[in-house]
Amino acid sequence: MLTKAQIRQILDTMGDMFPDAHCELNHVNSFELTIAVLLSAQCTDALVNRVTANLFKKYRTPEDYLAVPLEELEQDIRSIGLYRNKAKNIQKLCQLLLNEYKGEIPREHQELVKLPGVGRKTANVVVSTAFGVPAIAVDTHVERVSKRLGIARWKDNPLQVEETLMKKFPREEWSLAHHRFIFFGRYHCKAQNPQCVACPLSHLCREGKKRLKTT
């Protein structure tokens, strides 16, 4: 179990490595961000950005997404995994926004998760990035890094990982830590080829210690 001092060292080291960590999904408002995060499920941010470059020019409001047949929207996002299901959710989300929220993305987490295609992780990203509310969204990178470092247990599910990180990290650092864990996992502690030899956290990392012993 890591000590408070060790967790502080992890947060500070990631801060030094990725001081400008941020949401890499391109967007200009909370509506575009919500659509982008919905599309990013089981998909890379880079691919989502390629798709939304044209998508966000064509569709600017919930009304725009509802003005076309579902099949047309499906074709617009066809290169993204699970595109049929995501297209359905986008149109359902847009209809609900118009019916219940005057066409605006709600600011409250409990309202966001009511939107079709919006789960806890997506809601955390939106409240944090769009509205400045402290939150930790546990994606594959955050979960992998947390478990490798020994902050969370291997058997924990994403919700358990989120709850653990919320307990161990200062609330005012939740959002920034979330982005830095993503950058750390995406560009350094990769799923297949983690850079353990050059990692400044290898002395704290239970996975890194195992890997370094075998090299």
Question: What's the layout of helices and strands?
Answer:
Blueprint: H1 4-17, H2 30-39, H3 45-58, H4 62-66, H5 70-76, H6 83-100, H7 109-112, H8 120-129, H9 140-149, H10 158-168, H11 174-187, H12 206-213
Helix pairs in contact: 1-11, 2-8, 5-6, 9-11
Can you walk through the features of this model?
With 215 residues, this protein is mainly alpha-helical. It has two domains: 4-21 and 138-213, Orthogonal Bundle (Endonuclease Iii, domain 2); 30-129, Hypothetical protein, domain 2 (Endonuclease III, domain 1, Orthogonal Bundle). Helix content is 58%, strand content 0%. It has helices at 4-17, 30-39, 45-58, 62-66, 70-76, 83-100, 109-112, 120-129, 140-149, 158-168, 174-187, 206-213. Helix 1 packs across helix 11, helix 2 (30-39) packs antiparallel against helix 8 and helix 9 crosses helix 11 (174-187). The protein is elongated. The model has no long low-confidence stretch (mean pLDDT 95).
Provide a brief overview of the structure:
With 215 residues, the protein is mainly α. Helix content is 58%, strand content 0%.
Going by CATH, what is the homologous superfamily of the largest domain? Answer: Hypothetical protein, domain 2
Q: Evaluate the radius of gyration.
A: 19 Å
- The string of secondary-structure elements, in order, is HHHHHHHHHHHH
Determine the oligomeric state from the structure. Answer: single chain
Largest sheet: none
Q: What CATH first level of the largest domain would be assigned?
A: Mainly Alpha
State the helical fraction.
55-70%
CATH level-two architecture of the largest domain: Orthogonal Bundle
The low-confidence runs, each spanning 5 or more residues with pLDDT under 50, are none
Summing up helix and strand content along with how strands pair, one would put the structural category as: mainly alpha
Strand content: under 5%
What is the count of distinct domains? 2
From the N-terminal CA to the C-terminal CA, the straight-line distance is 25 Å
Round the mean pLDDT to the nearest integer and report it: 95
- Report the CATH topology name of the largest domain: Endonuclease III, domain 1
Shape: elongated
Please report the total strand number as a whole number. 0
